């Protein structure tokens, strides 16, 4: 009985404690919910701005890396310009990195890598010194004492100047000087841009040590640098141009525009001629890495574009032939220099008259004091000379187009031109008038009659010549004659796809110099480039089409094996203008150029080309020039072959030759060039 009562009491106690436990549990849950609600309220109300700021600080940035530049080939597929790869140490600047951190990384890097200090300046040393906060603070105090309050930019410059003036970097060790170079490159970079700290001669040991310590040097990476090489020699480098190296960086006159296009300050870029002209083709597309950042820290890197190598250029130049023509010009200048002390060089252009494709452009400059000869192929487009009688084909066609002569009525008497108050002007073979003769237009070209050309100019200006009369011409005669010349490319830019060509030089065209119009008519007044001569003779050879000379043949991609891939662009002949002459009018000019070489007349001027096969048509020129007060001559020639089916033209200029020179350098050189052309570029089979 007692046992039952005890059990009943226990059950009553247990049952009475259950509501208490449940109430306590509910209380704990209530507290937890209250805490959660309070925290949510805190996050949503009190810390809303903080988290919104963090979300807003999340950003996506783009980092770019260079790819190798497109290669350049000659017309036969020989590599003229290639790329050499070399190991490199680079630095990609993080967001908001401190000067002290870059200072520390620079010091650590030079423990493993040897850096050249050839470009180190006092300013670089000073900036390196000021990267240490304690040293910056001391210098800052001294500057403020002496100069007072300054803007941040002026203050920092004053601090740099103070360090230099007080010679505070005089005790820098060799390693510290190397670190100063590195620090300068690092600090000068934009956030997330990549600069090269060492781009050649990186040793295996340096690569290994840097690789082992990358985690302790944020931003330091191992990469590849590309530099230009010339496996076929540098014979056409003066035409191809140059690429800036890492040390040079972007050209100073283009830096702002190139930076806007996405270049880095130390990127290599075409700085002259073909490398510059076709920069957008050769440079390729940079590798793109998308960087996700939060609170200015990189959280993720994704390569979104692997980059694409630049496309390749195939040139119209035949490398072997180009070198041969260059050697021919140099050899001829060396041969005649002894008897021609004022010869400043010589220039040659070999071109396809039907397409404008340039097979070779060669030239040399000669130092008149030392006699040293240097390659200057670009002198063909930027050196101008008074060329002489080579332009007479344009003069005769101008007379035909203006109507003062016709294909069936064009006979004039070669005679000395004697005008009131001026010196007599005459042809080379008829200085005294003892050899007066009737000449047709084609015969006038054959014997290179100055008198005939002057009479054409006077007729075009409305003046009928009689010996002893005063010259009465309007100044418009200058523009009239030049108008015909320009239709052939004489006195205007040819449009060649190489930067820097000259348009030539025009003499004074006022009434006081009206007599110079007569000199202009036979090529002894205005000056032209050798390339203009080539365009001029091509226009005659093809029957009136002034074609743009070009050195680019095509643009091609690269295959996976590195060889030339598919063609993405091919240059098509570009007609700049058409000389509107009839077949019979062209016949007068072409007949005259044939006679220059092949006539039996003893006065023909191009007889040295008569044995050249296939047959050549030509016009020679001798311009009267001066070196100071010493009389000199320009020896020039233009020609095409075969005469009845032109495939190639050759234009040559030897300025500054001795007066009365009889070496006929330009004509002899043309014969040598034709022989090389038919052997090295095109077969002469089927031509005569």
TrEMBL record:
<feature type="transmembrane region" description="Helical">
    <location>
        <begin position="20"/>
        <end position="41"/>
    </location>
</feature>
<keyword id="KW-0573">Peptidoglycan synthesis</keyword>
<dbReference type="GO" id="GO:0008658">
    <property type="term" value="F:penicillin binding"/>
</dbReference>
<keyword id="KW-0812">Transmembrane</keyword>
<feature type="domain" description="Penicillin-binding protein transpeptidase">
    <location>
        <begin position="347"/>
        <end position="674"/>
    </location>
</feature>
<feature type="domain" description="Penicillin-binding protein dimerisation">
    <location>
        <begin position="65"/>
        <end position="301"/>
    </location>
</feature>
<dbReference type="InterPro" id="IPR001460">
    <property type="entry name" value="PCN-bd_Tpept"/>
</dbReference>
<dbReference type="InterPro" id="IPR012338">
    <property type="entry name" value="Beta-lactam/transpept-like"/>
</dbReference>
<keyword id="KW-0472">Membrane</keyword>
<keyword id="KW-0961">Cell wall biogenesis/degradation</keyword>
<comment type="similarity">
    <text>Belongs to the transpeptidase family.</text>
</comment>
<dbReference type="InterPro" id="IPR036138">
    <property type="entry name" value="PBP_dimer_sf"/>
</dbReference>
<protein>
    <submittedName>
        <fullName>Penicillin-binding protein</fullName>
    </submittedName>
</protein>
<dbReference type="Pfam" id="PF03717">
    <property type="entry name" value="PBP_dimer"/>
</dbReference>
<dbReference type="Pfam" id="PF00905">
    <property type="entry name" value="Transpeptidase"/>
</dbReference>
<dbReference type="GO" id="GO:0071972">
    <property type="term" value="F:peptidoglycan L,D-transpeptidase activity"/>
</dbReference>
<keyword id="KW-1133">Transmembrane helix</keyword>
<dbReference type="InterPro" id="IPR005311">
    <property type="entry name" value="PBP_dimer"/>
</dbReference>
<dbReference type="GO" id="GO:0009252">
    <property type="term" value="P:peptidoglycan biosynthetic process"/>
</dbReference>
<dbReference type="GO" id="GO:0008360">
    <property type="term" value="P:regulation of cell shape"/>
</dbReference>
<dbReference type="GO" id="GO:0071555">
    <property type="term" value="P:cell wall organization"/>
</dbReference>
<dbReference type="InterPro" id="IPR050515">
    <property type="entry name" value="Beta-lactam/transpept"/>
</dbReference>
<dbReference type="GO" id="GO:0005886">
    <property type="term" value="C:plasma membrane"/>
</dbReference>
<keyword id="KW-0133">Cell shape</keyword>
<keyword id="KW-1003">Cell membrane</keyword>
């Amino acid at each position: 009985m007692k046992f039952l009562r005890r059990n009943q009491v226990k059950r009553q106690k247990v049952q009475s404690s259950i509501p208490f436990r449940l109430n306590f549990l509910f209380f704990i849950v209530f507290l937890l919910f209250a805490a959660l609600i309070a925290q949510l309220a805190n996050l949503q109300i009190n810390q809303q701005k903080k988290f919104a700021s963090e979300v807003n600080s999340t950003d996506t940035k783009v980092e770019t890396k260079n790819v190798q530049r497109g290669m350049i080939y000659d017309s036969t597929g020989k590599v003229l310009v290639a790329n050499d790869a070399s190991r490199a140490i680079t630095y990609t600047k993080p967001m908001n990195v401190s000067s002290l951190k870059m200072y520390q990384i620079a010091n650590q890097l030079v423990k493993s890598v040897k850096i050249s200090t050839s470009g180190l300046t006092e300013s670089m040393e000073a900036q390196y010194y000021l990267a240490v906060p304690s040293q910056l603070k001391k210098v800052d105090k001294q500057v403020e004492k002496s100069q007072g309050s300054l803007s941040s930019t002026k203050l920092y410059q004053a601090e740099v100047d103070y360090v230099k003036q007080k010679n505070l970097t005089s005790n820098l060790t060799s390693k510290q000087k190397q670190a100063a170079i590195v620090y300068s490159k690092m600090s000068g970079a934009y956030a997330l841009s990549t600069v090269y700290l060492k781009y050649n001669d990186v040793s295996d040991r340096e690569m290994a040590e840097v690789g082992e310590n990358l985690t302790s040097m944020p931003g330091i990476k191992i990469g590849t640098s590309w530099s230009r090489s010339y496996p076929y020699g540098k014979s056409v480098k003066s035409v191809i141009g140059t690429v800036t190296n890492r040390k040079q960086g972007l050209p100073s006159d283009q830096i702002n525009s190139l930076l806007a296009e996405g270049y880095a300050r130390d990127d290599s870029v075409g700085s002259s001629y073909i490398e510059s002209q076709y920069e957008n083709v050769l440079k390729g597309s940079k590798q793109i890495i998308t960087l996700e950042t939060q609170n200015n820290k990189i959280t993720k890197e994704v390569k979104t574009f692997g980059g694409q190598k630049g496309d390749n250029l195939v040139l119209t130049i035949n490398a072997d032939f180009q070198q041969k023509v260059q050697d021919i010009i140099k050899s001829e200048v060396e041969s005649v220099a002894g008897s021609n002390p004022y010869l400043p060089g010589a220039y040659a252009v070999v071109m396809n008259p039907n397409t404008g494709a340039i097979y070779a452009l060669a030239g040399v400059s000669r130092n008149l004091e030392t006699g040293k000869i240097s390659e200057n192929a670009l002198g063909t487009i930027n050196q101008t000379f008074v060329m002489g009688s080579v332009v007479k084909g344009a003069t005769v066609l101008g007379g035909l187009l203006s109507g003062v002569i016709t294909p069936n009525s064009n006979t004039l008497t070669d005679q000395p031109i004697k005008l009131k108050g001026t010196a007599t002007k005459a042809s080379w073979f008829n200085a005294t008038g003892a050899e007066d003769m009737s000449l047709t237009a084609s015969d006038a070209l054959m014997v290179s009659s100055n008198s005939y050309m002057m009479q054409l100019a006077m007729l075009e200006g409305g003046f009928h010549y009689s010996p002893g009369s005063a010259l009465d011409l309007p100044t418009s005669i200058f523009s009239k004659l030049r108008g015909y010349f320009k239709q052939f490319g004489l006195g205007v830019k040819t449009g060649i796809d190489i930067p820097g060509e000259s348009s030539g030089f025009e003499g004074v065209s006022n009434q006081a110099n009206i007599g110079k119009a007569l000199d202009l008519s036979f090529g002894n007044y205005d000056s032209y480039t050798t390339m203009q001569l080539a365009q001029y003779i091509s226009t005659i050879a093809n029957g009136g089409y002034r074609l743009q000379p070009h050195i680019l043949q095509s643009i091609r991609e690269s295959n996976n094996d590195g060889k030339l891939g598919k063609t993405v662009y091919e240059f098509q002949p570009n007609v700049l203008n058409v000389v509107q002459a009839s077949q019979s009018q062209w016949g007068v000019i072409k007949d005259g150029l044939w006679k220059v070489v092949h006539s039996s007349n003893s006065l023909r001027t191009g007889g040295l080309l008569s044995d050249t096969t296939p047959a050549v048509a030509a016009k020679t020129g001798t311009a009267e020039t001066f070196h100071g007060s010493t009389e000199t001559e320009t020896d020039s020639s233009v020609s095409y072959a075969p005469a009845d089916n032109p495939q190639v033209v050759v234009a040559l200029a030897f300025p500054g030759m001795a007066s009365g020179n009889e070496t006929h350098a330009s004509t002899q050189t043309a014969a040598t060039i034709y022989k090389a052309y038919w052997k090295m570029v095109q077969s002469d089979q089927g031509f005569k």
